[in-house]
Every structure is written in structure tokens, then in C-alpha cells.
Amino acid sequence: MTFRALCVPLWLKKICKFPRQLLSLQIEIKQKNIMSKYINPATDFGFKRIFKDEEITRGFLNALLKRYDPKTHIQKVTITDGELDETSKAIRRVIYDVHCTTDTGEEFVIEMQNEPQEYFPERIVYYLARSASRQQAKGVIKHIGEDGEKQELPWNYHLKRIYGVFFMNFKDPDEKHQQGLSHFALLETENHYQDTDVFQYWKIQMPIYRKMKESDCTTDIDKWIFNLSNM
When you count CB atoms within 10 A of the terminal residue's CB, does the N or C end of the chain come out lower? Predict the structure, then answer.
């Protein structure tokens, strides 16, 4: 399917530079005689080619946070090494599709899943937990006391927030969970307050967005996902 932004919608022109950047990527691909004429985000090449562009990723993540955490605005993202260094051969190797950090230290894991997978929710939790483990300070942290003297204190378990964005190129097998964009966080089960905001993640079911109309998109993040799903 060709990308609808080849005729760039006015609403998308207003919210981001996504179409112009994406079209420049498509022209570059065509000039290099790469097999596909258009970028397909469901492929490993296409997904990384889009989301390893720091400006595109920043625009997408800001649209996502605008809906769920409007107080947070990312000024800059830095794409980091998506492969974790293993301390033991017994630990399963983790290679993220895209891993990035923000100017304030938050981390984002961005993944594309093309087929249903048993224990997919558990895999998500594992990926975020492994990202958290990289923040662990080794031994002690340096601190300047009130007297101006340097002190060494044990790591106090402070973690920067870790977000996961998981694109699903399929519908959830459970019909009750078939929702275009779902947000997950650690909540108390009776009063539904958030115990910590360190772990949060989103599932994006692309087939649901493919059946939507452009007029169904009411938020910036809906417009982003709608276009990504229809490339």
C-alpha cells in the first residue's frame, strides 16, 4: 500500500515535519535502487530507518506523551546501542529494535512485533526490566554534601522513567483486548492510583488503525499511527 502522505494532509503539515522527512527517505531509497519503492515500517529495515531518525522519533514520542503525560515534553532524543552487554552467558541476549534516551534521562524501547507470540506481555516486562538494570549504579554514587565535601553514598534505587512502545502488526488474539492504542502502568487495583511512573508502556495494534478513516483521528498520536499503519 502506498503512503497516503504522498499527498500530504494539511493536519499533518501543521503538527510535524514527518511527511517531508519520510519522503526524503523514500527518494533516497529509490535512488539507491533498494527493492521496495516505499518504506515499510513492518520490516526491520523500514522500522529502523524511520525510528533511528532522531527528529522523527522525537516528534512521535512527544505526540504520544502529549496525550498521556502532557507535562512532559522531549527537547532531544539520542539513539543508543540497542544491544545489552551480558554479564553471564546464562542470561538471554537482548537486542532492541530501537532504544533511545531523552535530554532528561528517560529511556524508550521501541519495538515492532509482526506475529503473535506466546508470553508477549511477559517479554515486554522483561525488556523494560533489563533496560532498568542498566541504570544500576556500580557500588556507590558521588554526592556533594552541605559542607561542600565529596561523599560516596550507596545507590538509592532511583530510576529514570522507562517507557516501552510496542507496535503490533496483528490484532490481539483476545477480542476483549483489541484496541488501537493501549496504555499500561503500575496501578493499585482497588483505588487505581499509580504507585510509580518508572514503568509504562503502550501497545499499538496497527490493523485497527488501517480500518480507521482519517476523520477518526482525533489526537496527534492517532494521526501519527494512522499514517505509519497505512504506509
Answer: N
Q: Tell me if 32 is assigned to some domain.
A: yes
Cα-Cα-Cα-Cα dihedral sign, residues 228, 220, 97, 45 = positive
The backbone torsions φ and ψ at residue 42, rounded to the nearest 5 degrees and listed phi first, read: -80, -10
Distance between CA atoms of residues 24 and 21, nearest Å: 5
Residue 201 lies in a domain: yes
Residue 125 forms part of a structural domain: yes
Phi, psi dihedrals of residue 126, rounded to the nearest 5°: -65, -45
pLDDT tens digits for range 170-179: 999 999 999 9
Q: Considering only CA atoms, which of 223, 209, 218 is closest in space to residue 180?
A: 209
Q: What is the pTM of this model?
A: 0.79
CA–CA separation, 201 and 184 (whole Å)? 5
